[in-house]
Design a protein that fits this description.
Layout (H helix, E strand, L loop, with lengths): L5 E4 L5 H12 L3 E4 L6 H8 L10 E2 L7 H15 L4 E4 L14 H29 L3 E6 L12 H21 L4 E8 L5 H14 L5 H7 L10 H11 L11 E4 L7
Parallel strand pairs: 1-2, 1-4, 2-3, 4-5, 5-6, 6-7
GO biological process, one term: fatty acid biosynthetic process
GO molecular function: oxidoreductase activity, acting on the CH-OH group of donors, NAD or NADP as acceptor; quinone binding
Protein name: SDR family oxidoreductase
Length: 260
Amino acid sequence: MSKRKVAIVTGAAGGIGQEIARRLADDGFHIVISDTEGQRQALNALADTLFQDSEPPHVAPADVRYPASVDSMVSSAVDRFGRVDVMVANAGVVTASPLLELSVDEWDQVMAVNARGTLLCYQAAARQMIRQGKGGKIIGAASVAAHQSSALVGHYSASKFAIRSLTQAAALEWARHGITVNAYSPGLVDTAMWDALDEQITSLEGLERGDAFKAGMSEIPLGRVQRPQDVAGMVSFLASADADYMTGQAVVIDGGMLLG
């Protein structure tokens, strides 16, 4: 069996997740890429670009809202590569809505994917890592919204605050097993998800499409939009031995928008 470490990346069909998978593949990990079943074609296309020494990544679709689906994803990774060393719980969704108009269904949808989905990925990965007895690294997708909320995305911010809190608790509980738990907190990232959010926000506020994106850009001291590769670089660090003494942190990587 290969000694190469194994990393699972959820939400890998596009955007930040895709770049995380690429970066960890470049770092030498066996890669397990996951997203919903409806994204299988995109996952397969990504897999075709990530061959390592003739060893293709493993495609394991899952719906992170459901325990059985997440457990199956992790079991599939173990069946393929024999172990799990890194879990990147990257899957997430965002919508814009004023709190007075926010429906229970919209709240539940965002919370189910972001907060519950992250919990389930953390749990499934930790159980496998504990069985293996060699520790591991669990990494979650927080956001600058996990540190400071914004109008129109209060429900999204709440879900990301939950991930930040969950990350701290998991770090404390699982440290004795040699498992570190950290999160990354991106800012305004140039992805299709942000394009869709911009469209929703500008529609709600009666602005021109793209205005919300421009407003966010004006708050970035480094003066450029964040790329998915910027986030992937941070995840690469968190997954590496260089981060072995780091746990319970939600690292802001946003070009200087928030200063802590």
